[in-house]
Amino acid sequence: MKSTHLLALACFVLWGFSGCREEASTTLNLVFEVEWQGAPYAVGEAGIDDQGRDVQLERLECYVSDFAVHDVREGWIDIDTVARIDFGGTTRMAGLEIVGCQGLEIDGFRMGLGVPADRNTDVDPASYSDPDHPLGYKGSAGMHWGWAAGYIFSVYEGRLLTDPATPFAYHAGADTCFRSVEFTLDEPTLVPFESGDVTWTLTLDAYACLHGVNDIIDPEIDPETHTGNNLPLAIRWVDLYREAWTLTP
Q1: Tens of pLDDT, residues 218-231
Q2: CA nearest to 100, candidates 28, 196, 23, 27
Q3: Is 32 inside a domain boundary?
Q4: What letter would DSSP give residue 131?
Q5: pLDDT per residue over 55-68, tens digit each?
Q6: Which structural domain range is residue 136 located in?
Protein backbone atom coordinates (compact mmCIF):
# COMPACT_ATOMS: atom_id res chain seq x y z
CA MET A 1 0.00 0.00 0.00
CA LYS A 2 2.82 2.36 0.87
CA SER A 3 4.45 1.97 -2.54
CA THR A 4 1.09 2.49 -4.25
CA HIS A 5 0.56 5.76 -2.40
CA LEU A 6 4.05 6.95 -3.31
CA LEU A 7 3.42 6.14 -6.99
CA ALA A 8 0.13 8.05 -6.94
CA LEU A 9 1.79 11.04 -5.31
CA ALA A 10 4.59 11.00 -7.89
CA CYS A 11 2.07 10.95 -10.75
CA PHE A 12 0.18 13.87 -9.22
CA VAL A 13 3.38 15.89 -8.87
CA LEU A 14 4.39 15.16 -12.47
CA TRP A 15 0.93 16.17 -13.70
CA GLY A 16 1.23 19.42 -11.77
CA PHE A 17 4.57 20.23 -13.38
CA SER A 18 3.29 19.40 -16.87
CA GLY A 19 0.42 21.84 -16.41
CA CYS A 20 -2.29 19.72 -18.06
CA ARG A 21 -3.08 16.35 -19.52
CA GLU A 22 -4.50 17.38 -22.89
CA GLU A 23 -4.01 20.42 -25.10
CA ALA A 24 -6.95 22.41 -26.38
CA SER A 25 -7.26 25.44 -28.63
CA THR A 26 -9.28 28.57 -29.09
CA THR A 27 -9.40 31.16 -31.85
CA LEU A 28 -8.84 34.84 -31.25
CA ASN A 29 -10.72 36.53 -34.09
CA LEU A 30 -9.40 39.92 -35.11
CA VAL A 31 -11.80 42.24 -36.92
CA PHE A 32 -10.15 45.15 -38.74
CA GLU A 33 -11.94 48.48 -39.03
CA VAL A 34 -10.99 51.86 -40.46
CA GLU A 35 -11.92 55.34 -39.27
CA TRP A 36 -11.06 58.95 -40.08
CA GLN A 37 -10.09 61.11 -37.13
CA GLY A 38 -12.07 58.88 -34.79
CA ALA A 39 -15.24 58.72 -36.91
CA PRO A 40 -16.48 55.73 -38.98
CA TYR A 41 -15.05 55.78 -42.48
CA ALA A 42 -15.23 53.72 -45.67
CA VAL A 43 -12.59 53.59 -48.41
CA GLY A 44 -13.87 55.74 -51.29
CA GLU A 45 -15.30 58.43 -49.05
CA ALA A 46 -13.72 61.83 -48.51
CA GLY A 47 -12.26 62.94 -45.19
CA ILE A 48 -11.00 66.38 -44.17
CA ASP A 49 -7.28 66.89 -43.57
CA ASP A 50 -5.60 69.36 -41.23
CA GLN A 51 -5.81 72.10 -43.88
CA GLY A 52 -9.51 71.61 -44.55
CA ARG A 53 -8.96 69.81 -47.85
CA ASP A 54 -11.00 66.78 -48.93
CA VAL A 55 -8.91 63.60 -49.02
CA GLN A 56 -10.37 60.60 -50.84
CA LEU A 57 -8.79 57.22 -50.18
CA GLU A 58 -9.11 54.79 -53.07
CA ARG A 59 -7.04 51.88 -51.77
CA LEU A 60 -5.95 50.86 -48.28
CA GLU A 61 -4.36 47.44 -47.76
CA CYS A 62 -1.74 45.88 -45.54
CA TYR A 63 -0.04 42.71 -44.33
CA VAL A 64 -0.09 41.87 -40.63
CA SER A 65 1.95 39.10 -39.01
CA ASP A 66 4.20 38.12 -36.08
CA PHE A 67 1.32 38.13 -33.62
CA ALA A 68 1.77 37.48 -29.90
CA VAL A 69 -0.41 37.61 -26.81
CA HIS A 70 0.90 38.17 -23.29
CA ASP A 71 -0.50 35.92 -20.59
CA VAL A 72 -0.09 36.98 -16.96
CA ARG A 73 1.34 33.54 -16.10
CA GLU A 74 3.01 32.33 -19.29
CA GLY A 75 4.43 35.57 -20.66
CA TRP A 76 4.52 36.17 -24.42
CA ILE A 77 2.97 33.47 -26.63
CA ASP A 78 3.90 33.75 -30.32
CA ILE A 79 1.29 33.01 -33.00
CA ASP A 80 2.61 32.33 -36.49
CA THR A 81 -0.01 33.86 -38.79
CA VAL A 82 0.23 36.16 -41.82
CA ALA A 83 -2.90 37.93 -43.04
CA ARG A 84 -3.65 40.37 -45.84
CA ILE A 85 -6.21 43.00 -44.92
CA ASP A 86 -8.08 44.97 -47.60
CA PHE A 87 -9.90 47.81 -45.85
CA GLY A 88 -11.95 48.35 -48.98
CA GLY A 89 -13.25 44.78 -48.90
CA THR A 90 -16.19 43.25 -47.08
CA THR A 91 -14.21 40.63 -45.13
CA ARG A 92 -11.52 42.08 -42.89
CA MET A 93 -10.61 39.42 -40.38
CA ALA A 94 -7.71 37.27 -39.16
CA GLY A 95 -8.08 34.20 -36.98
CA LEU A 96 -5.33 33.46 -34.47
CA GLU A 97 -5.37 29.89 -33.18
CA ILE A 98 -3.96 29.61 -29.67
CA VAL A 99 -3.07 26.14 -28.39
CA GLY A 100 -2.70 25.43 -24.68
CA CYS A 101 -3.97 23.60 -21.65
CA GLN A 102 -5.84 26.23 -19.69
CA GLY A 103 -7.57 29.54 -20.16
CA LEU A 104 -5.38 32.57 -20.67
CA GLU A 105 -5.47 35.91 -18.92
CA ILE A 106 -4.22 38.21 -21.65
CA ASP A 107 -2.91 41.62 -20.64
CA GLY A 108 -0.87 42.42 -23.75
CA PHE A 109 -1.03 42.06 -27.54
CA ARG A 110 1.54 42.52 -30.29
CA MET A 111 1.19 42.64 -34.08
CA GLY A 112 3.76 42.98 -36.84
CA LEU A 113 3.07 45.40 -39.68
CA GLY A 114 4.43 43.76 -42.80
CA VAL A 115 5.88 40.42 -43.82
CA PRO A 116 8.62 38.85 -41.65
CA ALA A 117 12.11 39.08 -43.12
CA ASP A 118 12.49 35.32 -43.57
CA ARG A 119 9.41 35.27 -45.83
CA ASN A 120 9.80 38.56 -47.64
CA THR A 121 12.56 38.64 -50.27
CA ASP A 122 13.92 35.80 -52.43
CA VAL A 123 10.60 34.01 -52.10
CA ASP A 124 8.50 32.77 -55.03
CA PRO A 125 4.77 33.16 -54.23
CA ALA A 126 4.17 30.12 -56.46
CA SER A 127 6.10 28.02 -53.93
CA TYR A 128 3.05 28.06 -51.63
CA SER A 129 0.98 24.92 -52.18
CA ASP A 130 -2.17 26.97 -51.59
CA PRO A 131 -2.22 29.75 -54.21
CA ASP A 132 -4.81 31.62 -52.12
CA HIS A 133 -2.47 31.84 -49.13
CA PRO A 134 -1.91 35.55 -48.36
CA LEU A 135 1.67 35.13 -49.59
CA GLY A 136 0.74 32.80 -52.48
CA TYR A 137 0.63 33.94 -56.09
CA LYS A 138 -3.13 34.58 -56.03
CA GLY A 139 -3.35 35.73 -52.44
CA SER A 140 -0.55 38.27 -52.93
CA ALA A 141 -1.74 39.65 -56.28
CA GLY A 142 -1.11 43.39 -56.32
CA MET A 143 0.98 43.17 -53.13
CA HIS A 144 4.21 41.65 -54.45
CA TRP A 145 6.98 43.48 -56.28
CA GLY A 146 9.11 40.47 -57.23
CA TRP A 147 11.67 38.05 -55.79
CA ALA A 148 14.31 40.67 -55.06
CA ALA A 149 12.04 43.42 -53.74
CA GLY A 150 9.59 41.18 -51.90
CA TYR A 151 6.11 42.03 -50.71
CA ILE A 152 4.40 45.39 -50.29
CA PHE A 153 3.68 45.78 -46.59
CA SER A 154 1.12 48.57 -46.85
CA VAL A 155 -0.68 50.53 -49.56
CA TYR A 156 -2.32 53.92 -49.01
CA GLU A 157 -3.57 55.52 -52.23
CA GLY A 158 -5.96 58.28 -53.14
CA ARG A 159 -6.15 61.92 -54.10
CA LEU A 160 -6.61 65.37 -52.69
CA LEU A 161 -9.84 66.67 -54.19
CA THR A 162 -8.26 69.99 -55.06
CA ASP A 163 -8.51 71.69 -58.46
CA PRO A 164 -6.82 69.99 -60.14
CA ALA A 165 -6.86 66.83 -58.04
CA THR A 166 -3.57 65.72 -56.50
CA PRO A 167 -2.99 61.94 -56.54
CA PHE A 168 -0.82 60.30 -53.87
CA ALA A 169 0.50 56.78 -53.28
CA TYR A 170 2.45 55.43 -50.31
CA HIS A 171 3.70 51.87 -50.82
CA ALA A 172 5.95 50.62 -48.03
CA GLY A 173 7.98 47.43 -48.16
CA ALA A 174 11.53 46.19 -47.52
CA ASP A 175 12.69 44.88 -44.15
CA THR A 176 13.64 48.39 -43.02
CA CYS A 177 9.94 49.30 -43.12
CA PHE A 178 8.73 46.43 -40.92
CA ARG A 179 7.21 47.70 -37.68
CA SER A 180 5.42 46.24 -34.67
CA VAL A 181 2.60 47.70 -32.64
CA GLU A 182 2.08 46.63 -29.02
CA PHE A 183 -0.82 47.18 -26.65
CA THR A 184 -1.13 46.83 -22.88
CA LEU A 185 -4.66 46.11 -21.70
CA ASP A 186 -6.07 48.07 -18.77
CA GLU A 187 -7.33 44.81 -17.26
CA PRO A 188 -6.46 41.21 -18.20
CA THR A 189 -8.99 39.61 -20.55
CA LEU A 190 -9.94 35.98 -19.95
CA VAL A 191 -9.65 33.84 -23.09
CA PRO A 192 -11.07 30.40 -22.23
CA PHE A 193 -10.39 27.18 -24.11
CA GLU A 194 -13.14 24.92 -25.47
CA SER A 195 -15.85 27.45 -24.70
CA GLY A 196 -16.26 29.49 -27.85
CA ASP A 197 -14.08 31.91 -29.77
CA VAL A 198 -13.13 35.44 -28.72
CA THR A 199 -13.35 38.52 -30.98
CA TRP A 200 -11.29 41.70 -30.72
CA THR A 201 -11.30 44.77 -32.96
CA LEU A 202 -8.26 46.53 -34.40
CA THR A 203 -8.98 49.97 -35.83
CA LEU A 204 -6.74 51.95 -38.18
CA ASP A 205 -7.26 55.71 -38.21
CA ALA A 206 -6.59 56.69 -41.83
CA TYR A 207 -6.32 60.36 -40.82
CA ALA A 208 -3.54 59.56 -38.33
CA CYS A 209 -1.62 57.79 -41.11
CA LEU A 210 -0.84 61.27 -42.43
CA HIS A 211 -1.14 63.39 -39.29
CA GLY A 212 0.93 62.55 -36.24
CA VAL A 213 2.19 64.28 -33.15
CA ASN A 214 5.71 64.68 -34.52
CA ASP A 215 5.17 64.56 -38.27
CA ILE A 216 2.59 65.40 -40.95
CA ILE A 217 2.76 64.19 -44.54
CA ASP A 218 1.31 66.70 -47.02
CA PRO A 219 0.45 64.89 -50.30
CA GLU A 220 1.00 68.11 -52.27
CA ILE A 221 4.61 68.22 -51.05
CA ASP A 222 5.35 64.49 -50.71
CA PRO A 223 2.94 62.67 -53.02
CA GLU A 224 4.62 59.32 -53.61
CA THR A 225 6.90 56.60 -52.36
CA HIS A 226 7.38 53.05 -53.56
CA THR A 227 10.06 52.61 -50.90
CA GLY A 228 13.03 52.13 -53.21
CA ASN A 229 12.51 55.46 -54.97
CA ASN A 230 11.97 57.43 -51.75
CA LEU A 231 12.97 55.48 -48.64
CA PRO A 232 12.93 58.49 -46.25
CA LEU A 233 9.26 59.13 -47.09
CA ALA A 234 8.42 55.43 -46.76
CA ILE A 235 9.95 55.41 -43.27
CA ARG A 236 8.01 58.54 -42.32
CA TRP A 237 4.83 56.85 -43.56
CA VAL A 238 5.32 53.59 -41.63
CA ASP A 239 6.19 55.46 -38.44
CA LEU A 240 2.90 57.39 -38.66
CA TYR A 241 1.03 54.23 -39.68
CA ARG A 242 2.35 52.34 -36.64
CA GLU A 243 0.91 54.97 -34.30
CA ALA A 244 -2.51 54.97 -36.01
CA TRP A 245 -3.78 51.66 -34.53
CA THR A 246 -6.07 51.08 -31.57
CA LEU A 247 -7.24 47.81 -30.01
CA THR A 248 -10.66 47.10 -28.50
CA PRO A 249 -10.83 43.72 -26.67
Answers
A1: 999 999 999 999 99
A2: 23
A3: yes
A4: T
A5: 999 999 999 999 99
A6: 18-248
